[in-house]
Write the structure tokens for this entry.
Amino acid sequence: MDKQLISLLACPVCKGELTLDKARHELLCYADGMAFPIREGIPVMLASEARTLTADERLDRKPGQPV
């Protein structure tokens, strides 16, 4: 996904910043602990389609990423 497009997107739950996980094809919201899938290049921004981040994934957040 294009970084410019990602910067325009916000978490549908808290309206916070999202982080791209290229390896898993997901957009991550660390504030809510949710991972939104990207299917065929299209982000699925539905809370019902998101998975919950594991405790390890929440702790593996890189410095400077939103909480």
